[in-house]
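User: Need the bound-state model for S-adenosyl-L-homocysteine:
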Amino acid sequence: MQRRPGFPARLSGTGGPPPARGTALPGVPVTTSAGVGLDSAAVRERMVGKLAAGGITSAPVLQAMAAVERHRFVDSALVNQAYEDTSLPIGLAQTISKPSVVARMCELLLGAQAARERGLGRVLEIGTGCGYQAAVLSYLAREVYTIERLRGLHDKARHNLRPFRLANVHLLLGDGMLGYAKGAPYAAIISAAGGDVIPQEWCDQLAVGGRLVAPMSVAGGQQMLLVIDKTPQGLNQSVLEPVNFVPLKSGVA
Ligand code: SAH
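Assistant: Bound-state model below.
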């Protein structure tokens, strides 16, 4: 008698188990939880559950948000708020962006045409702040150039990021309104600070197929999230939801 194949039929081949969530991402060390108790990973998983419920669907973004220990980027007095969906002060009148906004912007970057075809290449982040978003981006992009105009925060980000040993993150001190021409062209540019216009340099330094995601103030002063795609035919702009970022300022201080 012929044996019927079991169900599900086993496929021939060598498919190994799927990679475990939040671990073994290429080039990223596995970090241990500390600072908010042994269950900081569990607290992050809850945060990620809320991000998913709020509409974030990109698995790489959710994995990166689960992996990066946001509590290591805020002052010790704020650690117990680190996984709430809120922006928090990081000194010098600046703030770390809300997790939902970081996830949303990262998801938009991954939606760029070039990123969908070839993965996310070199990214320029304007406004390093405490370095949190740069750490998230390091999981999603091949190279991350991040520029900060305030020396105090540039130094703080260097200190915060050191234990993560993220070899693909490059911290720069400078005026991000000028972009960073030496790293151009970029597959994506992301700004954590908003002005009244998008600097021409950002559009110039974007690769064809690349995408810019940035807040910008529109008539009436309301800030909106803007997406600009650079196509062979020119720039395509979309205005998305209202947002609330710190101001984009010129010069280094
Ligand atoms: N991504 C950051 C958010 C920091 S808030 C984080 O994860 O913490 C935005 C930052 O943009 C501030 O630190 C502010 O100093 C910086 N910024 C504003 N204008 C800038 C400019 N022209 N160039 C570089 N950084 C700028």
